[in-house]
Hints:
The chain contains 18 helices and 27 strands.
Amino acid sequence: MDAKIVVLPESLTSKIAAGEVVERPASILKELLENALDAGATDISIELEKGGCGSIKVVDNGEGIKHAEVPLAFERFATSKIYDFDDIYKVRSYGFRGEALPSIAAISRVEMVTRKRSSLSGTRVIIEAGQIKTMGHAGCPVGTSVLVSHIFDPVPVRKKFLKTEMTEQAYCMDVISRMALSHHEVRIKVAARGREILNIPATRDIPERISLVLGTDFKDGTIPVKGNKGSITLTGFASKPEYSRSSTKQIFFYVNKRFVRDYLLNHAVMTAYRHVIEAKRYPAAILFVDLPTEDVDVNVHPAKMEVRFRNPRSIYDIVAETMVSALSNIGPVVPEGKGRMMPEGYSQRVQEALKRYTISMGSGKLFFHRSVGDARETASIYAKIQDKGKDILQFQGLPEESDAEKEVTKKSLNFADLEYIGQIAGTYLVFSSTSALVLMDQHAAHERILFEKLKKRSPASGEKMIGQTLLIPEVVSLSPGEFATLLESIKIINDSGIEVELFGEKTVIMKSLPAMLSHVEPKALLCELLEEFSKTERSLGLEERKEKICALLACKGAVKANQKLSESEVEMLCRNLDATPFSSTCPHGRPVVISFNTGDLERMFKRK
Ligand code: ADP
Ligand code: MG
């Protein structure tokens, strides 16, 4: 590429989403890195002083700038990346507005040294508060080096808005990590206070890069995600349900390699995880959406962190559908000490890459929160459940799956093949396989089975569930709030087999319940359901209501803790679980199975 830098005409710049691009050192760094990548660099070195508040230096081996064009690069709206407005819908480069360098130069001192491969000598230019101070020829390697210092000196008030050097450096490291994740082919070195803190070699593929940037834990914690629809593709990695985070911060979205924050995309991911992880826990994911440039508008945000899709619905659908299908295929896996989800030869390549790589700083290594405590928590929650019912398992209420249904999921752990050893604490089923000890929470397992079956049969899937008529209909009086909630959802409640008829002002008669809930107290069930519906402040969508009903019915219908199961009931539970998607967690996101492989046992017995 040998494009000329030109100043865009006013007619075009007036249509460009202009705005403040230099908010803090990390925003300067982001712009410099984007320029380096746009220039085709394969090797980038970054030096930060005082967390980026002192100075920022970015050295690249990209295509460089012609001597005569160097002053232009610092002019407002001077760019080599677009020439007319329509080009904005064709650009693959990060930059296109020609705003970054002049904005940075206006609030700091910039020293740029640059040389094109075809030139014998390079150019050195110093700019202070937007004015060129010196410019001349200089001997230098091919590529560009930009040193930004005296940051915010011309606007001292801006310094007051900066946080501590450590925090500003963390922002800078975030910018570097995001870039590093989407450009695995680029070598990236970072030094702070003269000490190298990160040195990531070019890697063969993105998974290898992810391990280097975010730690190898990611390898064990994620599954690959892949899907496409028409000209849109989605690829990436997303956390398994048992690895979750306390915020959505670890969901990285890239649209045509551009890191973006997008509510819609996050929502699509969260929807897929809704009944797979616990409430208030969030997945981690690195997802790349690629689509034709004309279908996405990148000219909507000054720092280009947001984009607008021509057809948001289809993007939402592909993300949600691909995630659901990836998650539905995860069964609980007996760890065999091998990363089963990664491509062949992956671990070895990461190990090799790790040897070449050094890191002495970075929070990335703690990317995932392995929910060690959660298992204990689950055990104590279930131990507390006092089951008063004496009902036997209601498996007979639901027929066996067809072979076709069984084909839906293929998992590495087949419960029906495990050897059943017995039950402990009336709650946990104990199994052994040749190389592992497997514990299953009977309630969580049954709950997931029922939930998936109910979801399949729920009204939205076109089938009305048939309730079992109550011997004596139950008259229930509701509070005004409960009554209003009921009116909103009465159809969907009736369709789910809970037959409710209005009877006066705030009174209803319950006539039937789903067969599997014959042991449940009808009034309590209805009130609990209405409470679920009114928990959120916004009004719930049809799909969400349907899922809430299914989740509640599954929870109430599932075998409880402290309930003895016969061997044939355990066998039936295992067979059903084998044919159930999302079987690694219950609909509230708690684990169904915890397993210990021989390695784990050896470690516990201190043999290793
Ligand atoms: P934009 O990236 O939007 O074009 P910038 O102000 O960031 O605007 O840069 C202006 C121009 O300077 C770019 O279009 C590019 O031609 C040139 N440029 C900036 N940084 C580099 C670099 N590291 N290597 C080569 N060219 C660069
Ligand atoms: Mg730029």
